[in-house]
């Protein structure tokens, strides 16, 4: 079994991130979907292992690649903050881009609202914000992805 922690929008507030990491260890990979605000080294140290990060709209001078494509359990996964695809309005631009590129799963942040939306062609994953939630219950969130030995994926929304 592989366990992956997915977070976004920490905005230089690491208390909840540290707590979530402590509660979920051990895990195999931390994915951070942006608004890191220059604290890549701190996040890497907190994770204590493999970390993949992409910059957000508040990461003005980040040296990180704008987005990343990775493979998980044979699925093509796009990691992006989402602001280039207008995710605060709707998911249509992001959906069209992912379908054109043959993406199976897209992970994004920016809205500060969690989402696990599984469609026929595409799965949308947004862990919400680990620091500044905007959904009705105002609870800080992240997602744990578990991949079993058969490659089956389970996305679990978690609260800090």
TrEMBL record:
Domain of life: Bacteria
Enzyme class: hydrolase
Cofactor: a divalent metal cation
Any one GO MF annotation of this record: hydrolase activity
Listed InterPro entries: Calcineurin-like_PHP_lpxH (IPR024654), Metallo-depent_PP-like (IPR029052), Phosphodiesterase_MJ0936/Vps29 (IPR000979)
Location of the Calcineurin-like phosphoesterase domain: 3-149
EC code: 3.1.4.-
UniProt KW keywords: Hydrolase, Metal-binding
PANTHER family: VACUOLAR SORTING PROTEIN VPS29
Protein family per UniProt: Belongs to the metallophosphoesterase superfamily. YfcE family.
Protein name: Phosphoesterase
Species whose genome carries this gene: Lachnospira eligens
